[in-house]
Automatic annotation (TrEMBL):
Taxonomy, superkingdom: Eukaryota
Membrane-crossing segments per the record: 20-39, 59-80
Keyword field: Disulfide bond, Membrane, Transmembrane, Transmembrane helix
Protein name from the UniProt record: Mannose-binding protein c
C-type lectin domain segment(s): 83-201
Species for this entry: Plakobranchus ocellatus
Pfam families: Lectin_C (PF00059)
Length: 204
């Protein structure tokens, strides 16, 4: 709300300038001071009004984001720049892996769990992970669940187009390694329930 005080102040200024006007001083000076005074006071008043209105709303918004983030399981990611039609993001915090759940999250961002199409893509992603200094387990979307030894992409169920295994892998250790994690030295089959990161691929 605009205060009426500037108008009172203007009146006073006019009164104060009356002697100058009488002495033949330029009459516009009082008007300029008056307008400036109104503008400054009005601006201050508007800023105060804005802050008084928006501050509680901002606090409410922040609270809502925190509540939603907590209930919806907010996930933080590191982003890997676009390369040949895809960009990538790696979750920052390790958590129990679940193929469907993590693939669903990737889908929510317009993508899917990583599926490798070529040596170039494999090399790019592993170097980018190295740049992030990421040494924890990072799951891909490659799996052989339900078809032991025949690896496919969980998202589209198509056979994995490119597999570059780490030495002596895949070994299906103890018969339960049906997911695939990416290491600097190649892919490894691993149990699907590790506490780990995962990487999403997003076509762009
Ligand atoms: Ca297996
Ligand atoms: Ca293995």
């Amino acid at each position: 709300m605009i205060s009426f005080s500037p108008y009172k102040r203007c009146s006073m200024l006019h009164v104060r300038h009356l002697p100058y006007l009488a002495l033949g001083r330029p009459c516009y000076s009082a008007t300029i001071i008056c307008i400036r005074s109104v503008l400054i006071t009005s601006s201050t008043s508007l800023v105060s009004t804005y802050l008084a209105t928006m501050a509680p709303l901002s606090i409410l918004l922040l609270f809502a984001v925190l509540v939603i983030g907590t209930t919806q399981g907010y996930v933080a990611y590191n982003f890997i720049p676009r390369y040949r039609g895809s960009k990538y993001m790696v979750s920052k915090n390790a958590e129990p892996f679940d193929l469907a759940k993590m693939n669903g999250r990737c889908k929510g961002s317009g993508g899917y769990l990583l599926q490798l199409d070529s040596y170039r893509e494999y090399r790019y992603v592993k170097y980018e992970l190295a740049l992030l200094r990421e040494r924890r387990l990072v799951y891909t979307g490659i799996t052989d669940l339900g078809s032991e030894g025949r690896f496919y992409n969980y998202n589209d169920k198509k056979p994995a187009a490119y597999l570059r295994w780490r030495r002596r892998q895949p070994d299906n250790w103890r018969g339960y390694e049906h997911c695939v994690n990416l290491t600097y030295y190649g892919l490894n089959d691993i149990g699907c329930d590790g506490n780990a990161l995962y990487i999403c691929e997003i076509p762009v």
